[in-house]
């Protein structure tokens, strides 16, 4: 599903270049749930921006489902992103004056009139994320956990090939965070959704098939759920 080859990313700060990603190679399979961890400044968020087509690498190749994202111009990336990438952010980025249903349906308006089929899709997602009873409420009347559920449903409304989540539980307490992680796991297991989640929380990372550790712009370590030391690794960091 995702292929990264020798990815470099530099930013110009004044007269100096800062290298954020340094030769990153990565393969992510269709239907895989991957957590990306590492200290601040290690390149996690930059990686997510490149995968989402919000930026382009200085060097290297990025292919998503066979499409060369690194070769696309900005307008092409925008169209590709709208059809193939779903985003979930830490601060939700919802429209507060719209209802739950209106927020979830919002991305569909970019493709014209809301058909009956699209309306059914909206209702299915509202039910899937457990928000049927508040579907006509405005976003500013919801709890943080409910708002993140709306954000997840909105990100999935276009049936994206890839779901990118940037600290999706960062603003939530442990109970609400568990609910969101369980929801993501459900979509991953039931719909074979490919998910890449950036997180600082090892508890959240424990829901993933693999944990990719970044350090100084490079992949330092990859730990798989299939590894014998996976449980011990999680226990060490959660202690």
TrEMBL record:
SUPFAM superfamilies xrefs: P-loop containing nucleoside triphosphate hydrolases
The domain of life for this entry's organism is Bacteria
Record GO terms (molecular function): ATP binding
Task: Please give the organism.
Answer: Jeotgalibacillus terrae
Keyword list, A-Z: ATP-binding, Nucleotide-binding, Transport
* Listed name of the protein: ABC transporter ATP-binding protein
Looking up Pfam families in the UniProt record yields: ABC_tran
Which family does the UniProt entry place this protein in?
Belongs to the ABC transporter superfamily.
Start and end of every ABC transporter domain? 2-235
């Amino acid at each position: 599903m995702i292929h990264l080859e020798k990815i470099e990313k530099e930013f110009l700060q004044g007269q100096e270049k800062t290298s954020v990603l340094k030769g990153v190679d990565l393969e992510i399979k269709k239907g895989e749930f991957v957590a990306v961890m590492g200290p601040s400044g290690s390149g996690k968020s930059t990686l997510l921006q490149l995968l989402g087509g919000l930026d382009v690498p200085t060097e290297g190749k990025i292919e998503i489902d066979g499409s060369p994202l690194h070769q696309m111009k900005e307008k092409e990336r925008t169209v590709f992103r709208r059809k193939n990438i779903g985003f979930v952010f830490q601060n939700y980025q919802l429209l507060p004056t719209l209802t739950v249903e209106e927020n979830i349906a919002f991305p569909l308006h970019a493709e014209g009139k809301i058909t009956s089929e699209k309306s059914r899709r909206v209702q299915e997602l509202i039910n899937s994320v457990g928000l049927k009873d508040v579907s006509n409420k405005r976003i500013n009347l919801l709890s943080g956990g409910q708002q993140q559920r709306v954000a997840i449903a909105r990100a999935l409304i276009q049936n994206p090939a890839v779901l990118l989540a940037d600290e999706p539980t960062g603003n939530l307490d442990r109970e609400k965070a568990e609910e969101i992680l369980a929801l993501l796991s459900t979509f991953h297991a039931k719909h074979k959704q490919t998910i890449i989640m950036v997180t600082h929380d090892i508890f959240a990372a424990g829901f993933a098939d693999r944990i990719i550790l970044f350090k100084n712009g490079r992949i330092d370590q990859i730990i798989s759920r299939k590894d014998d030391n996976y449980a011990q690794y999680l226990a060490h960091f959660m202690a």
